[in-house]
Backbone:
DNA sequence: GCACGTAACTTGAATGTGTCAAGAAAACGC
DNA sequence: GCGTTTTCTTGACACATTCAAGTTACGTGC
C-alpha cells in the first residue's frame, strides 16, 4: 500500500489544498478536502477508491458528494480526469505539467510518463480537417515491469500487484 | 446522412468482410456481417448506433449479439475500439494503419488524424519505469470546424452537426 | 446431401457507474 | 450572529455493459 508519495507533511498538504480551493473560488468543505487528500495519497484512483478512502478516515460522506466534489474540482482545473478505454473514470491532482500515462494491460496500473518530445509533444496534428486542437492526450499501452516479469517467469502464475483491479478491457 | 464513404459496391464490401472473418477463423454469421457493414457505413459509431443500424436493415438482432460481435471482432483485430473520456465505447473497422482521433468537445464528433510524426509517432516514452509499451494512443481534443464557426458567429446559436450526440464529458 | 459438435445467438435478468431531484446542512459575506 | 447560496444527504433512477441458461445455426466430416 503506497504511502503519501511526496515527503510533505499532511498538515501542509491540507493547507495547500485549502488554498487551492479558495484560489479557485470554491468553498472549503470537509468532503472536498477529503477528496483532495485521497487523490494526493493515491494518484489515478477511480471513484470507488476515492469514496473508500474518504470514508475510511472521515465521517460518512455520500457517494453523491464525492461525485459532486470530483466534478467541481475537475471543472475548476484542480483535478484532472483520465479514463483509459475499458476503465472507469480516474482522477489525479493536476500538477499543471503536460504529462501522459502508461497503462498496464494486465493489472491496469497507471504510471505517469513525462512528455517524450519536449514540453508539448504530439500537439501538432497536420490540419485534421479544420479541427482546432487545444489538447493532446496520450495513453501508452503495455505491460508494467511486475506483470512483465510474471509473464516471463511462468505462464500459469497470474500476476498480482498492488491493489489495482484487474483490467480486461483492452485487447 | 452520410453514404458509404468509399466508392465500393456493397456486395464487394460484404465479400471482403466475409473474407476477413474467415481469415480470422471466425464463423460467418449474419449479425457479424451486419455489424461490419454498420461500422463501414458509420465509422466511430457507438454501440447504440450499431444496434440501430443493424436492426434497421436486417432482421431482429439482440443487443447482446451486437456486444458479442463487437467483442469478437475486437479480439480478432478486425475492429478497433476507442473510448474518449466521457463517451461510451465506439468502434471502427481497423485499417491497420496507426492513426489517431480528434474529438470535438462541443458535438462529440470524431475525425481520423494521420500520425503527425511519421509512421509510429509517439511510441517512444523515455523508459517509463520499466513499462514495455506496445501501443501509443493519442486523442486530440478541440473544436471541429462546424462548432468553431458556430462559436465564432454567435454565442446564442448552439452548434448542430451530423447525428452525433452532444458531448459534455470533457471540460 | 446429412448429421454432429461447437460456436454463436436469444432471452431475461443483474451489475455497477454515474446522474437527477428535493430537502437539509453548512460556508461565506455582511 | 444572520441570511443567502452553495454544497451535502438521501433515495431513486438511467444507461451501458455483463452474466447465465437454453436454443439456433455454422462448419466439418462422412
Residues:
Amino acid at each position: 500500500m503506497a504511502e503519501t508519495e511526496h515527503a510533505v507533511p499532511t498538515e501542509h498538504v491540507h493547507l495547500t489544498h485549502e488554498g487551492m480551493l479558495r484560489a479557485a473560488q470554491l468553498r472549503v468543505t470537509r468532503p472536498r478536502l477529503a477528496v483532495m487528500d485521497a487523490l494526493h495519497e493515491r494518484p489515478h484512483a477511480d471513484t470507488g477508491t476515492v469514496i473508500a478512502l474518504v470514508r475510511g478516515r472521515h465521517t460518512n460522506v455520500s457517494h453523491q458528494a464525492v461525485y459532486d466534489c470530483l466534478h467541481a474540482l475537475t471543472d475548476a482545473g484542480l483535478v484532472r480526469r483520465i479514463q483509459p478505454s475499458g476503465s472507469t473514470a480516474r482522477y489525479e491532482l493536476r500538477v499543471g505539467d503536460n504529462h501522459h500515462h502508461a497503462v498496464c494491460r494486465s493489472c491496469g496500473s497507471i504510471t505517469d510518463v513525462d512528455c517524450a518530445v519536449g514540453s508539448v509533444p504530439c500537439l501538432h496534428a497536420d490540419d485534421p480537417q479544420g479541427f482546432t486542437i487545444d489538447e493532446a492526450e496520450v495513453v501508452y499501452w503495455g505491460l508494467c515491469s511486475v506483470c512483465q516479469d510474471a509473464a516471463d517467469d511462468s505462464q500459469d502464475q497470474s500476476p498480482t500487484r498492488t491493489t489495482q483491479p484487474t483490467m480486461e478491457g483492452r485487447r
